[in-house]
Amino acid sequence: MTAGTRDGISPWAVFDRESWRALAAGSELPLDEADVRALTSLGDRLDLDEVATVYLPLARLLGLHVAAGRRLWAAQRAFLGDSTDKVPFVVAVAGSVAVGKSTTARLLQTLLAAAPGSPRVDLVTTDGFLLPNAVLESRGLLGRKGFPESYDRRALLRFLAEVKSGRADVSAPVYDHAAYDIVPGERQVVDRPDVLVLEGLNVLQAGRQADGSAPDLFLSDFFDFSVYVDAAESDIRQWYVERFLALRRTAFRDSTAYFHRFADLTDEQARATARGIWAAVNGPNLRTNIAPTRSRARLVLQKTADHSVRRVLLRKL
After folding, report:
1. Contact 126, 198 (CB under 8 A)
2. Is pLDDT above 80 for 4?
């Protein structure tokens, strides 16, 4: 582990791969290769060694935080005479399109659920809180999908507030990536899990209200721990292009898919289209809205061009 800057002051403790892996030495990995393949998003590269090196120690660390949070909650509940039975521990996972945050979120859900006591761990993505395409079109925002203004921020804040109040049967909208839109009438119900993993592009963003003022509440006010998945923009852009080409050969082939019109592009046309989308949408969103939130995370996973995590930055307590 290393820490500090030239003047010796830094809010981060920095771990290389070896020192981070050592934190979970002796721990059994509750996954096999088939499990890892099932949890890995299209375009990501992951194997058992990477899980043992990076994600198992992270799950162990989160387990310590969850247990400490439970003890504090029980003590406070007894002190205040509060009758609320359980408040979920909320873990946020942030990062760019194509950086691997969905894989990270699913891995954490699986590893945390395999901890002693088999805690119940739910996973919700903020995609469900995107405004429906019809609304985005009416507001001229369809081309800015994924930007902060394309989300129903009030509904997302309300969802988190209800979850953290210990309310039962809190529901979230469901998003269909093939249809590229919200599924009308479909909801995901969250019923007081032990842990809630919330994954999304802009979950760490402070944001502004319509009048330019700062909001009274931030999403991060409801987080107990946050993870930012980081990489160089040039690498993320390349991963995005590679994923676009893979989708062209798979999901885009479905005639009902929103992006079916891209299915018959040549490789050269597909690369040009993906780079154009990145230049117009994902790149600006990353630089303007997502990357600036990295410093607000509790922990940062820094990836290299081969998708492996080379360093872990943990904010000092």
Report:
1. yes
2. no
| Nearest partner of 22 among 56, 68, 59, judged by Cα | 56
The pTM (predicted TM-score) of the whole model is 0.94
Minimal CA–CA distance to 296: which of 215, 213, 202, 192? 202
Cα-based distances in Å from 105 to 96, 124, 151: 13, 9, 20
CA 173 to chain centre: 17
**For 61, how many CA atoms within 13 A lie in the half-sphere containing its CB?**
22
End-to-end CA distance of the chain: give it in Å, rounded. Answer: 16
- Local structure of 82: helix, strand or coil: coil
What are the residues whose beta carbons fall under 8 Å from the beta carbon of 239, sequence distance 6 or more?
43, 98, 99, 100, 231, 307
Q: Are 136 and 61 in contact (CB under 8 A)?
A: no
Spell out the domains of the chain, with CATH numbers in brackets: 16-307 (3.40.50.300)
Both tokens assigned to 171:
């529901």
For the chain, how are helix, strand and coil distributed in percent, rounded to 5? 45, 20, 35
DSSP character at residue 27: P
Looking from the CA of 207 toward its CB, the CA atoms found within 13 Å total 23
What pLDDT score does 3 carry? 47
Q: Within 13 Å, how many C-alpha atoms sit on residue 156's CB side?
A: 29
pLDDT tens for each residue of 12-41 = 999 999 999 999 999 999 999 999 999 999
Q: Calculate Rg over the CA atoms of the chain.
A: 20
